[in-house]
DNA sequence: GCGGAACATTAACCTATGTTATGGCCCCCG
DNA sequence: CGGGGGCCATAACATAGGTTAATGTTCCGC
């Protein structure tokens, strides 16, 4: 897929992500760089956003891991998704009154924050970026929907296997995994909250996977020994990640538009 | 909230929904009406979209109920969300290769379909509409995330109660519920698939709710006798529906933009 | 008005997963 | 170098919810 230029100028994770949907122009690139100008660091276990708070700034995760999670009044908690570099936090902050979820770091992170008005500017001035953002939002929703399928209809073993394959895939795309192994800064407690299971049962289930030789774990290092087998166990169908697509589909949509517009309008039977 | 003009011209559910985010101009209204020009009917239990199929047209549900659902190869199924009038189906069809979910009608419906290029046109020519669409997409994702919390961390009783309150709220906004009662064209099987439970257990749970006098059911008519109590049982916190917001927040965002642009740019410390 | 399909209801029984409890390991801090 | 906190591991036991199966009910086509 996309190869990460070794940390150089436009190689921010957000830039990388969006440019896998459209080829970015110089102007668009400049706009994105400007967005990420104001960089800050946060330690692990810091809340970047707290459920119920008024929304403030929006930000881009540039480095590190975080989780998006929701809690019930009595403390039960559900991890909605893992936030990886290139993901945006609170993108619609100016449209929603309060945050309905929290975002908490799992590792030390680097975030770039910007005033939400920038998003409005983006919608006005950069329709292709806007569409790319909408695209990535839709993909994110697809991931949440897939997790919903897991919690609703997969067994514990299937869920764990599915999550591991999903993370492996997502991390591979951003060069954070090499041949089946990656760093997983996730305690079993957090995994439990992501999978709707108890800690103990996550532990049991992980053990089964280890015993059957499908994965190996040492500390935060996780190695998948047999991806295809693990994918079978987890009933993993990567449709939902929408990784397979004709390159530059959005690109083409935008240029086709000129050509097709006349046709469409002339079909009008008024 | 928004009162539905009695079926007259701009009163399409989509128009209504979007105009609760921004006050729509004449041009924008015209564009939306044109979108919904090509109307068709479908019976109950018809697939409007099938998981794995190549995406084709996009469409707007104008009347009736449908469900968005995903299935595992072995037939287990999860309902992701209920599709109500004003919701768009397959909005990003030109960006994704294949559908990762199905959409099936629960009642006879009226849908308007349009070529996906129209969405591109919309992003180019109507940034405010684009933002409104993004907004409603984000709200939809928020609903899926809340359902995820249900499946992961709420008990069966809580889930059922929560779902009923959610539907009541959503239907009230579009004038499809009056003082606590509404028509629910949903079998217990579908409810089970939405809540990650078995049919039998949905039945048991519904009975508990009836026995405790919180709801009444007769045929497809569902009456909530005590909303606030039911909301307590379901740990319902309507934050996620994002109904409470300053009116025309998006509106304001768009006009503020002009004013703030200068300030933001001048902050630039280059 | 009869037969059958689709759906709701209930009971009896079973199992996947949750709970509670205990011990071990590792690492950091004093 | 000793102690405590966070995390992992396992065992024993408890239960929410799943499964199977049998019976009703409603409605629709003929």
Give the chain pair forming the largest contact, with residue counts: A-B, 72 and 73 residues
- Computed over alpha carbons, the radius of gyration of chain A is 20 Å
Q: Assign the structural class of chain A, choosing from mainly alpha, mainly beta, alpha/beta, alpha+beta, or little secondary structure.
A: alpha+beta
Helix/strand order of chain A: HHEEEEEEEEHHHEHHEEHH
Q: Might you state the CATH topology name of the largest domain in chain A? A: Jelly Rolls
| N/C terminus separation of chain A | 46 Å
User: Order of strands across the widest beta sheet of chain A?
Assistant: 1-8-3-6
Sheet-strand content of chain A, in percent, reads: 15-25%
How many DSSP helices of chain A? 9
Assembly classification: homodimer
Number of domains of chain A: 2
The low-pLDDT segments of chain A are: 1-9, 261-270
The CATH homologous superfamily name of the largest domain in chain A equals Jelly Rolls
Percent helix of chain A, as a range, is: 40-55%
Give the CA-based shape of chain A.
globular
Describe the structure.
2 copies of one chain form a homodimer. By secondary structure, chain A is an alpha+beta fold. Chain A folds into 2 domains: 1-139, Jelly Rolls, CATH 2.60.120; 155-234, Winged helix-like DNA-binding domain superfamily/Winged helix DNA-binding domain (Arc Repressor Mutant, subunit A, Orthogonal Bundle). Chain A is built from 9 helices and 11 strands. Chain A has helices at residues 13-19, 26-35, 117-125, 127-153, 156-173, 188-195, 199-211, 227-233, 249-267, and strands spanning 39-42, 47-49, 58-63, 66-71, 77-83, 88-89, 102-105, 109-114, 181-183, 215-218, 221-224. In chain A, the strands form 3 sheets. Chain A has a 4-stranded antiparallel β-sheet, with no helix packed on it. Chain A starts with 12 loop residues before the first helix and ends with a helix. Residues 1-9 and 261-270 of chain A have low confidence and may be disordered. The interface between A and B is large, with 72 and 73 residues. Chain B binds a DNA duplex (30 and 30 nucleotides) through residues 155-156, 187-189, 197-201, 203-204, 206-207, 219.
